[in-house]
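Per reviewer request, we include the raw input and output of the structure prediction for the construct analysed in the revised manuscript.
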Amino acid sequence: MTTALEKDVAAPAATGRRGSHALRWWVLAVLGVAQLMVVLDATVVNIALPEAQLDLGFSNADRQWVITGYALAFGSLLLLGGRLSDLFGRRNTFIAGLVGFAVASAVGGAAANFEVLVGARVAQGVFGALLAPAALSLLTVTFTEPAERAKAFGIFGAIAGAGGALGLLLGGALTEWASWRWVMYVNLVFAAVALVGAVMLLAKHVTTERPRLDIPGTITVTAALFAIVYGFSHAESDGWTNSVTLAFLIGGTALLAAFVAIERRVAHPLLPMRVVLDRTRGASYITVFAIGIGMFAMFLFLTYYMQQQLAYSPIITGVAFLPMVAGMVASSTTVPSLLVPKVGPRVTVVAGFLVSALGMALLTQIGVDTAYATHILPSLILMGIGLGTAMSTAFIGATSGVHHDDAGVASAMVNTSQQVGGSIGTALLSTLAATAFNDYVGEHVPPSPAVLAEAAVESYTTTFWWAAAIFVAGAVITGFIMPNKAPVPAEGEPVLAH
């Protein structure tokens, strides 16, 4: 009988398992297209929201539900989606997620009213929760050779990190040159390409046993994540002392504690504790969580600054983020294979955090009319290099040494960490920005247009300082927890012979 420890670090050499194989780089291309579609969707809609609001005639109060509906469904169902891919096969779950996401996008694009648009966004979140963990877990069990695994995860990490910035550019271009509806319809193109590739390239999973789904754990953690994500979303609009905010945050935390207790007792847990208690994987989830909080400050508040203070159009704003994308792609595709084997994952992640913190600290020097080339560009390049370094290394560590039966749920933890981190970042940093704005205006009476402009910049730089501090905290915590040894590859999975 295999012990939990043996199961956790099983080697990828077992007969009948396919790991690295001839078509693996084509598989990476398919998974990359699907991942890009899911990541783009988190930001591409933001740019199009004002146009959609004008077209469908919904209020400012309702507008947040187009974003929140997706976040709630996606964030709360990720662990279930990851476990379903373990139970029913990654290929099947991936294809189901692709088809469902495409149908939901088509419905959203054709929406005649607000209710249909929000319903479509919720459906996108549901199918995204199937798709994202399946994509990462397919990558985990496809690339089992250490050197190639580092390159593959680096490319995948670059897509995951840079997709948000590319979403701003694509959203701006589609909204300006076509219609807001095309930010939904464009997903059909991504889904079609990925679906053809998935059907042709992905091997069919075979299993001799199928453990039962942990229903109590599933219900508890889904409710917990829903409450936490909604609580932070509500805090952003209604404040931290609001009774509904407090009820959801406290309730979500209590449910999370109950979930851990359940998982320690059931025979087939939704999230086996061995997945998160491994120091390499645990530190990797913390890394992704901290990046999720800090990256929000850059994307949201730097977008505000460029559009409102510097009067950039949505497309120019998207183009302005491209140097960060370039830095991210460059570091993600080179650091895991070149740096991690030499200095270890702990040193690499800590260095990535510190470079990111430096970039964010430089961004605090912006003023009402500072130049892009001198104040924004250096910061974006540093953050691209730093975040790409930390995130790509964390992606490798998050699924290292994991048994193929746990690859889906281990991958889901990556997405969950990022999603919950983003939700916390949204609420926390928006509150800090609003407080800084109000304090500045209160100290400079009467509030002339110049004072209001200065107050806005003060609110942005406040969030950048906080984000820099979060990156430094991430460096310290992961520096203590993560062992500095090369991550063990995951094993391949049983597939039908060709």
